[in-house]
Amino acid sequence: MGGRSCGEEGQIERRRLATNVFACCHRGASFLGCLTLMQLWSRYFIPTLKESPADAEIASHRLLVRAGLVRKLGGGLYTYLPLGLRVMQKLSRICREEMERSGAIELQMPHIHPAEFWADGPRWGPVREIMFRADSAGDGKRGPREPEFVLGPTHEEVITPLVKHEITSYRDLPKSFFQIGTKFRNEIRPRYGLMRAREFVMMDAYSFDADDDGAVRSYLAMKAAYEAFFRRIGAEAVSVEADTGVMGGSFSHEFMIPAEVGDDDLLYNEESGYSANREKARSALVPADHVDLPAAGALEEFPTPGIVTIAALEAPPYGVPADRQFKTLVYIGDGRPFAIVLRGCDELEEAKLGSLGFGLVRPATPEEIEPVLGAKPGSLGAVRGTLRNPSALVGIYADHAIRLVGNGTTGANRDGVHLRNVNVMRDLEIKEFGDFRRVRAGEPDPIGGRPLKMRRGIEVGHIFKLGTKYSERIDAGYTDDKKERHLFVMGCYGIGISRTLQALIEQSHDNDGIIWPWAVAPFQVLVCLLDPQDPQAAEIARRIAAAAERAGADVLIDDRAERPGVKFKDSDLIGVPLRVTVGGRGIKEGVVEMKWRGAPETLKIALDESEALIEAAVRSKA
RNA sequence: CGGGGUGUAGCUUAGCCUGGUAGAGCGCCUGGUUUGGGACCAGGAGGUCGCAGGUUCGAAUCCUGUCGCCCCGACCA
Asked: Which of these, A288, A333, A342, A406, is most buried using a 10 Å CB contact count?
């Protein structure tokens, strides 16, 4: 046994020896006398907290700190303590395995990027605000020989030039690359611990294909790898159709871990299998066979002094229900105004304006609206002939749902005047119908018409089919077998590893602490030694720990000179899946106790069977 | 960046309104009694009250500025 050399330890060691027979060992390795990775709690570093830090709002954030996984350095900046790092490493390893299984190849790109890689790119505008600058001058004022740098928020702008230079033939396609590493984004508002941090760990991947079919295959392979990853780490993640946002690209899925604290709404129906995030969600509110109502009468103006809201027009004396009103909104797309018509009861989903193809879209100001339509917001409408300067508009777009209104009420484009008996097809000047409204829970899903449900979720992964947006920009392509040149068809993919860590806690905890899924637990077995000063108990604990380790578990031995209550509380808090309690009381009965975290009952197992049973228990999980 | 809040010991905080020697619990150290779900007793260490100005005989407390942090909004893995 390795403990024999303990006489060489200092005075403190001898003092501790009095209460802990493991105390002379630097770590588990020495008392087993062979190579082992198990840790002794008394020698490890797990600073648990009884109370929550004041700045932690949500359960997972509190538990991250209380269980000793992380400590905050500053807003959105966290140190991963040993326990947190162990989970991160397990998540990374599983992610790596699934990515490699899908055919992707690991590499590593710099975190510091020369700014010119971004300055010419398609995303410099929208992405610039969240990038940290890393000028070599350090003060933002660079000298003539000091280039500008940024800290990488993602790596499309780096990998595309690389692949452009290194891959020139169709014979080398397809290729997918990935890396797992730190990303930097100067979030406007970091919050919820690791959930939205300034520095975070992400797996990012990029696929390059010869044509669109290949890109779809790469995309689907990646989707399968994601599903395998989330399954293996014990997360209940769902994939939803998503908006492509600033990334651009043609289609995309988000992977969500459902949780109340998520900042995304998803709409879904389990029976039909439809699921989408709110920005993208569609509904079958307007049936395919919908027939518009015939016009009910002639257009008629009526005075509405001071009435500028949907709600005011609903109230007496007007009494026009919101779903019988038309709401006309004006936006500026790439500098030119356009209008959107919705039902009064609907909300615009701004993300859906992306389908109109503008680069930059923002709401128009009243000053911009009045010269074009003829009135201020509150009395706007899209009735043919009422607009002051219709040629200034790019067009008037309408949500499909306004066809359900039939004859309704809308602004007359004169302040304080509205029109009634407005018939969609007869009276409105619509350039194009589209899907612009925000879908609500309860509406029929677009597949089978079943009611959509809504819940919140945490976005932990995102996959995009990018197309040729980036390759076109820098002319990155290859030569085919007919000596013709084509652009790479790209995809890009990301999994927030550190965010997933916290989302797992959010998804799996109780009042006592974290409940780790087996595959990612920092330690899978905790041998809770209640009497570390008792050589017989310590010997039993050591054998059980060794058996668990043989079976493939990561083992922690709680050998601290603490009272049992403290050890049990800490054990529950850090969420180790399997706890084995070894104490004098049990030993007298000839048993040790086995308890699965999250299960209510404690199992007593006979001492002489304990090693075999623990080994079997571990193997059943691995 | 807009709105709101907050800063007192390692952590959680009282005191601030109504200025007058900075208090508690947890944790930590020492001794003792305990020992199967966050023990008890006794003793002890630890705070220039975020920072800088101002008002005042006197400021944790009132005023101004500034910085950090937290929450709500837009954005994201």
From this structure: A342
